[in-house]
Design a protein that fits this description.
Length: 78
Amino acid sequence: MLYVVLAFSTGPRSCIGQRFALTENLCILASIVRRYEILVPRALASRSRGEQEKVMLAWHQRITMTPNDARVRLRLRS
């Protein structure tokens, strides 16, 4: 089975702002990671690492890949 991400489409009619959007997303993510520690949700904290990964890395396979339940906790770095 082949899965293709069609967020911006491809070919000669692809999104003109694709590179800018991807770069901006990367900058925002880097800013968040620099300022905050990313932790698992409290509901998953007592589970094993394998169970945490199974829940947090679950995806729906549709036209684009969509996370099932993408929740995290953020704690300000000191």
